[in-house]
């Protein structure tokens, strides 16, 4: 195996390798770590982040970024709880429609004007959070989920795992196929690799960009709705800084911030890795949960540096 192959292996599967090491360390170090209850807790709590991260994977591979997903997550939850008084369909479709529209508008602005995704989605972050505060009367009103069927969507279990976990698995598998086995997925990679070259090859650059931001908005809204169903309320204080956790999970999973490389499998590993780190911190007992942010930040910095070094090594090789 040459240097280039080793570099690709580490980039694509490094998060999975580290995840395996941490699981072994946790199993050997703590009796309560390798239990069915703890594993279920990690998987269930990670499922909502994973749904948002799947959409972010497409965005980052295309060479973009979406800072609005945290606000869309909160808005989706508030709209789902508000809509639940009108039935299951409204509770589910209202957040999808509004958050999807927000993603669509951002995608159109980015694709048609050429503005930097960072600026456009930063404006989206602020605008969407403002809309959420307006709906919830500056956060003073917490809407409760009043439809039992919708609440069951977030709380029902099969074999000890809630329905959102199985939905996340289905979405991840579908995203893998979409990214790896379809023309749309190849277009996403092409745009992230070299947008000008992709345009010369006839790739519909603008349309593909619109679709990836639409997808990101839809999945953020869906995750928020599922979380509201789990909590039986649209909590307005959630989602602050969530976009940073999502980006960290995607990048830790091997997706290059510069675009053109990455995958959903790595993203799922990155999400689980952050969940396992939090679980290990909880196992220690005398450490605060804020330490996870320190560990995640340090790990993210190491991953970005490693990606840079591996890219240079591959070019030299």
Keywords:
single chain, mainly alpha
Describe the SSE topology.
Blueprint: H1 3-29, H2 36-61, H3 69-83, H4 88-113, H5 117-135, H6 148-155, E1 157-158, E2 161-162, H7 163-181, H8 183-193, H9 195-200, H10 205-231, H11 242-252, H12 264-284, H13 290-316
Antiparallel strand pairs: 1-2
Transmembrane segments: 12-33, 39-60, 67-86, 92-111, 118-138, 158-179, 210-229, 264-281, 293-310
Protein name: ABC transporter permease
Membrane topology: Multi-pass membrane protein
Notes on the structure:
The structure is a single chain. With 317 residues, this protein is mostly helical. It has helices at 3-29, 36-61, 69-83, 88-113, 117-135, 148-155, 163-181, 183-193, 195-200, 205-231, 242-252, 264-284, 290-316, and strands at 157-158, 161-162. The chain has a two-stranded antiparallel ribbon. Strand 1 (157-158) and strand 2 form a beta hairpin. It is globular and about 55 Å long. The mean pLDDT is 89. InterPro entries: ABC_transp_permease. The chain crosses the membrane at residues 12-33, 39-60, 67-86, 92-111, 118-138, 158-179, 210-229, 264-281, 293-310. Pfam families: BPD_transp_2. This is ABC transporter permease.
């Amino acid at each position: 195996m040459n240097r280039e192959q080793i570099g690709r292996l580490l980039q694509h599967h490094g998060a999975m390798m580290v995840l395996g090491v941490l699981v072994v360390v946790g199993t050997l170090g703590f009796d309560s770590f390798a239990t069915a209850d703890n594993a279920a807790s990690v998987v269930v709590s990670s499922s909502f982040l994973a749904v948002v991260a799947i959409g972010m994977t497409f965005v980052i591979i295309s060479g973009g970024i979406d800072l609005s997903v945290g606000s869309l997550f909160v808005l989706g939850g508030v709209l789902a709880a508000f809509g639940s008084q009108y039935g299951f369909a409204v509770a589910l479709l209202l957040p999808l429609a509004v958050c999807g529209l927000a993603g669509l508008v951002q995608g159109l602005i980015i694709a048609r004007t050429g503005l930097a995704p960072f600026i456009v989605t930063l404006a989206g972050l602020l605008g969407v959070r403002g809309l959420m505060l307006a709906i919830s009367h500056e956060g003073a009103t917490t809407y409760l989920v009043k439809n039992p069927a919708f609440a069951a969507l977030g709380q029902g279990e099969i074999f000890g795992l809630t329905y959102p976990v199985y939905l996340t698995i289905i979405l991840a598998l579908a995203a893998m196929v979409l990214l790896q086995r379809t023309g749309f997925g190849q277009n996403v990679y092409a745009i992230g690799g070299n947008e000008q070259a992709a345009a010369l090859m006839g790739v519909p650059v603008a349309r593909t960009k619109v679709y990836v931001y639409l997808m990101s908005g839809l999945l953020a809204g869906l995750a928020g709705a599922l979380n509201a169903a789990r909590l039986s309320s649209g909590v307005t204080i959630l989602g602050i800084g969530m976009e940073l956790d999502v980006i960290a999970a995607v990048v830790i999973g091997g997706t290059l911030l510069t675009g053109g490389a990455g995958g959903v499998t790595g993203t799922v590993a990155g999400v689980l890795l952050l969940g396992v780190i939090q679980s290990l911190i909880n196992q220690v007992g005398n450490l605060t949960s804020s330490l996870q942010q320190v560990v995640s930040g340090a790990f993210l910095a190491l991953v970005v540096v490693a990606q840079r070094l591996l890219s240079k090594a591959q070019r030299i090789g």
